[in-house]
Amino acid sequence: MNYESVMKLALERAFYFPSCEVYGDAQAGFWEYGPTGVSIKNKFLELWRRELVRRDRMLEIDGSQIMSKSVFEASGHLGNFADPIIKCKKCGSTFRADKLISEIANVEIPESADLEDFDKMIQEKDIMCTKCKGEFDSAKKFNMMFRVGIGPEDVEAYLRPETCQSIFVDFPRLFKTMRGKLPLGIAQVGKSFRNEIAPRQSLLRLREFYQAEIEVFCNPGKLNDLEKFSEIENTTLRIQISDDIQVMTCKEAVDKGVIPNKFVAYYLGLLTEFYEKTGIDMEKSRFRKLGEKEKAFYADVAFDFEVNTTIGWLELVACNYRSDYDLSSHAKKSKEKFEVMDNDEKVLPHVFEISMGIDRSLYTILEHSLREDKENERMVLSIKPYLAPTHVGVLSLVKKDGLLEKTDEIYRLIRTKFDSFLDHSGAIGRRYRRLDEIGAPFAITVDHQTKEDNTVTIRRRDDMAQNRVNISELESILAKETAYP
RNA sequence: GCAGUCAUAGUAUAGCCUGGUUAGUAUUCGGGGUUUCCAACCCUGUGACGCGGGUUCGAAUCCCGCUGACUGCACCA
């Protein structure tokens, strides 16, 4: 389905909707998850925990969203996460100072240069606004981080622009107290905040968004010395090489040098196995190796996991080999020790990061799962049962003849075990359609026969087929059908 | 941030040009009835002009500002 249909469903069924929408001064880039959206998000994260965190024995933490200024001085965000901008005094157009100067005067000034250097060059070269020939105001830094003031003294601090900084600063304590051994994965789910210039397209470009990040700390001398690589060596990856997407196993990718080492390949393999289980159409996915100019300021080698949607390729995960950039910066700034022992060797670990965009992943799952069943005139969200916001609808065929009471009884039996929805009102077909739209994989219907022999029908969402089972079997059937893979 | 288009119930829309209606329609949703296994039908009810200002006797309609959405450019750790 397309963006428009997903958006319509999201609004109608409370998957997600704009934040503060009753007020006129609501700002772009902030969206809320409704009950249906939260339910999918929780299940998606549970799958993530199972397939990555637990599988790989990672440690999960939950850090602060507000972090001190020093953190971002060390991480480089205060310096690098800001763009030098200049604004025309006359028409108000804003430009990237470094880009404009290189375009017009053909002089390269690094974006991290002092602001005075930009002003000087603009004066020297007599650069005017390209739109209205107006004069420029002096250059300013636009930092994408949200600044906050702590306490009555208004002490400078920032909302984190990525969740991983707490993982880095917590690393020494975690390694010691959790009896860490390299390679060690530390994971975190939470919100990050970026003051985007142009937030767009609901969940796809937010100012406040969810990340599920994993930082794997490793011995840089042992990137090809990884026993568990055998677990995924035959997992196939789809990797973009020049203009083609090539399909190859993790092992082949390493042997051919497409991926620099087993360590990186291992995690790209895990990630692939995870996304296969989310129901995203993997035929529409690719890993793309980023060029020098595209990479983040801290990344050595970077692969983006991207998925093709109706609005183009969407970056769902950034996989960055950050080397010792973060740990050495924090070590230097904090004067704490970040080296650890790896057997007899003292090393400052390198970091490989798997930074997942949750909101974008959820959108993609919705887009790839939503389909129109024209034959039966219905919209169906064919989402994996273990990700469905409602597992099962519990319906009475009619309200009278004691069926309502019987239905309530069955609902009470399963409501704490599954996400269940009780519905008595209206035509049975309408109630089935409603469940189809929010992706409930099953519907239990109580009919007259139920009173005679204690059986109910179970209807399957995807093919509308029904079969009759005894009430005593319900729990085990549903448990089996909605279980995580 | 720039440019263009746009903003009316939960959703999708009509009305705006040419100012005056009880703001229409479809669907959804609540209550009731009837039928009972795939959005049927009948009765009934709830529900909207993004926010702020201006013009006018009178503004959903005309004007200005703001906010948002969409598309393109720029940006994107």
Secondary-structure-based class equals alpha+beta
How many beta strands in the DSSP annotation? Answer: 26
CATH fold group of the largest domain: BirA Bifunctional Protein, domain 2
Report how far apart the termini are.
25 Å
Q: Give the CATH H-level superfamily of the largest domain.
A: Bira Bifunctional Protein, Domain 2
Shape: globular
Strand percentage: 25-35%
* Count of domain modules: 3
> Major sheet: order of its strands?
3-10-11-19-16-15-14-12-13
| Number of discrete helical segments | 16
Low-confidence stretches: none
Under the CATH scheme, which architecture of the largest domain would be assigned?
2-Layer Sandwich
For the sheet with most strands, the description reads: 9 strands, mixed
Mean pLDDT over the residues = 90
Rg, please? Answer: 27 Å
Please write the CATH class name of the largest domain.
Answer: Alpha Beta
Helix content: 25-40%
